[in-house]
Amino acid sequence: MPPFIDYSRERRIPRPDVRIEDFSPFVSEKDLRERAAANKTAALLYQFVLSLKEEAAIHRINTLHAIAGAGSGHPGGSFSAAEIATCLFSVFMKYDSATPYAEQRDRFILSKGHGVPIVYAALAGHGFFPIDELAKLRRLGGLPGHASHVTPGIDAPTGSLGQGLSIAQGIAEAVSCKGIRANVYVVLGDGELQEGQVWEAARVIGAANTRNVIAFIDANGVQQTAPVESVSSVSPIKDKFLAFGWDAIGDDVPWGAPRESGHDFVFLINACSEALTARKPTVVLCSTVKGKGVSFMENKAQWHGKAPKGGEYAQAIEELTASRAAAVEGYEKLKTSL
Questions:
Q1: Beta-carbon contacts of residue 198 (< 8 Å; ≥ 6 apart)
Q2: For residue 31, what is the DSSP state?
Q3: Of 82, 188, 235, 283, which is the most exposed, with the fewest CB atoms less than 10 Å away?
Q4: Domain 30-337, what fold?
Q5: Is the separation of the CB atoms in 118 and 62 below 8 Å?
Q6: For residue 37, what is the DSSP state?
Q7: Cβ neighbours of residue 163 closer than 8 Å, sequence gap 6 or more
Q8: What would you report as the CA-atom Rg of the chain, rounded to the nearest whole angstrom?
Q9: Angle made by CA atoms 68, 69, 75, in degrees to the nearest 5
Q10: 205 CB-near residues (< 8 Å, 6+ apart)
């Protein structure tokens, strides 16, 4: 198996210093890319986005290596959350990986705990633990197969679906009572919204106006065995959160329609920026693709919890490597505008 890619040392696109608020006039990566050729500010912002796209590709590659090495795991829901995890750990969350339990840090809860391999890749990329620890996924004494607070950078054990939002409420209230200004970021799956506990927590958070809770719905439309809507519909998602007193960013996307907002860094950056200034708890609806980045995995329920082998593994690595190369090529072309 090839070595893991050490993102901190091997990234090829430099990340420029930009003002996050400068993203607000742009509505999507496509909009930003089209305006980058004639506008230096837009060009710098697009370089920033390309660096995030390279990072997300590296995290997917490392995730694939880890799952294939373990012989089991959840690539589909890991890949659908790659951009969300990259945006949070690279742009918005306040933390110091050298002191991962500092009280002033932002907290992160992966309610869809089975998708933790992509979070492990992001954590390793940002110095929470050595990159080679990814080889210990699902090994005794190594990285657990579902999210656990024993891992630096993860603030709650999850895997039994539906519990993360309740835990986020408790942590958010606790840090506020201590006078700590910290946000609690929680990522949920859309299939997970079939759990009643999610909506009990949403009601309590809205009623208490726990505004330092920011939730992301990784709405890839596919759960363990079939499309979410064919098992038990959770629609409308946005209207339910609004009814419970939340702010909501993004829209419900019906099954069969294009699902891309959760892979668009301009959307995610603007959504996070808006959530941080909201006077209510905020949910961001991210329409995503299960298995994003690997053609034969995309939108396929069978890749919910299955490790690729042999030719499948080789093809997946080839496609993910090409995604990274495309981001680097985009940067090389962009340099003429900088």
A1: 162, 165, 188, 192
A2: H
A3: 235
A4: Rossmann fold (3.40.50)
A5: no
A6: T
A7: 111, 156, 197
A8: 19
A9: 35
A10: 165, 168, 169, 172, 213, 244, 246, 281
